[in-house]
Amino acid sequence: MADVSIRQARKSYGSTKVLHGVDVSIGDGEFVVLVGPSGCGKSTLLRMIAGLENITEGEIAIGGKVVNTVPPKDRDIAMVFQNYALYPHMTVRENMAFSMMLAKAPADVIEAEVQRAAKILGLDVLLDRYPRQLSGGQRQRVAMGRAIVRDPQVFLFDEPLSNLDAKLRVQMRSEIKELHQRLKVTTVYVTHDQIEAMTMADQIVVMNGGRIEQSGAPLDLYDTPANLFVAGFIGSPAMNLLSGRVRDGAFHADGGAVMPLPPGAPPTATTYGIRPEHLRLDDAGIAASIIVVEPTGSETQVSLNIGETHLLGAFRERVMGRHGDTLMISPDLDLVHLFGPDGRRL
Amino acid sequence: MSATTVPATWNKARQQPGRLARLFDYKPFLVFACLLPALGLLGVFLTYPLGLGIWLAFTDTTIGRRGVWIGFENFEYLFTDPIFWNAVFYSVFYTGVATLGKFALGLWLALLLNNHLPLKSLLRAIILLPWIVPTVLSAIAFWWIYDPQFSIISYLAVDVLGVRTTNFDFLGSAWPARWSLIAANIWRGIPFVAISLLAGLQTISPSLYEAALLDGSTPWQRFRYITFPMLMPILAIVMTFSIIFTFTDFQLVYAITRGGPVNSTHLLATLAFQRGIPGGQLGEGAAIAVSMIPFLIFATLFSYFGLARRKWQQGEGND
Ligand SMILES: Nc1ncnc2c1ncn2[C@@H]1O[C@H](COP(=O)(O)OP(=O)(O)O)[C@@H](O)[C@H]1O
Ligand SMILES: [Mg+2]
Q: Taking every annotated instance into account, which residue ranges of this chain make up the domain ABC transporter (chain A) (predicted)?
């Protein structure tokens, strides 16, 4: 096991700059999730850690040792690919044993290791099957088994769940987390799904356009997003972000809504952020007209208009109402996020 | 039409289909009608010549004289004919050595071209050239290359490099002639092998190599454990075709040596032609041609078992 530190890493393909100086430090045994929209450079960064892409500038160190010029096989890392990259002509057993076979480990040691990994992942009965005879979730598990057998310093996952259906995704999510708690191997996990990031990570690194927007513990990111991008990206349903201006101690949104401000709010705020779950039903609040009501059972999501300003609310209460009805709401003032014209949190 | 009153409901079932329409709805007729063109072509261009050839092999037909059935007499004669056995030997030798050469060099080229090279598509086009040129033309080129006086290889060795004092005699004696023809066949056969195998290589997912890289493999191990097994299915197909084409080769040998010197480079195909057409012994020539059939059946069986889908391949669906 080892820590990983990435210092001012840059990557360009020819003249196309993909990463513009990225700093991440990952503690020993930590589960770090790189999250960001598609094309932001997450896979590139992961592949640089693995050694599959060279590092244009900057430094990557694993266990205190700079690995910029260390070939992939000597970095002692295991990677789970998005398409699993299982060897189609080898059985599950051969897939898992491949790295040890290359290292010329004795047959009984290989078999013991494969059995151990198979037991952890519940693959015991599938060892003699070929990848094509497995379901998506089973293939996913074989890919992890192949990584576990290696007993590496660092696990890398590149969107491992994106080929699975929704239900399996939730199940595998907790399996991976459980696996990490059991093995305590430093893990870097790439996903574009912020829910995966929130539920699995010790530390989330939010990336956008080849830069890091913010990194920190999941709930810190949720509670104090550093900028508009993170505010909009983390949390589901997404935060309401209203642009407008502060006037007379209230926030006047462009669409006409007038939102109350917490005491001492900076007058320079140009964006008012409030999460749907932080709007309350309040008879003394603001009148909003209902557009759509979507009950999910545990909560009710209501799409609202205050004047021309659109808002989404999520309420514990069961809201009854139809299109055009009026709902009285107010924001939880402690949980209002304000952002300046540069997009930064104030 | 406009004057008649149209009934309010139009009932399709009332219409009686015509005789012709009913005929075409009759499945056995339809099957027959659709198969007819293919059967006709196969019958005229495949079954008839093949049948005729086999029949001729059991007669003593010569050019200008209708033969009579003589049973296995042609074969009995051939089995005592050293020239025939020489042709059998050389056909097998030629096919074996040339196939080995084509696959070794073709695979090597395919692996090279599968890397990121500058001018990759230009190189691929150039590789195809030997295959595009008509065989007879390239045979004539080789004829010059192997010429006792004007050979460019002799010129290079004698006049330019000075490593020899006399010209090579490529085609003048048996073994040099045999090897020279094999070299020409390899040259001609490489493009087919290289391009087919390149197509096979490109179907292998790069992430398999990346996974193997992380698993700690050397380049040789990646070839041995990933490239080669995954290329096996296409390799088997290409090899079968290549063996059949090489075994039945005619043009190259006939254009360069005509089977000489002293019948040492006759393949079964050239010998069959030699005996049958210029020699006039149609029956005997046909018997030589027919004697190729067991070898070709063997090659086809090889393909049948070699190609038998491997277990890991079957139904390559996603789930
Ligand atoms: N080999 C390459 N050549 C040029 N551009 C590339 C290459 N690989 C990736 N890119 C670009 O780098 C950016 C980041 O890609 P990637 O890391 O795969 O994003 P993601 O965050 O979706 O995993 C993308 O804009 C992509 O177009
Ligand atoms: Mg990616």
A: 4-234
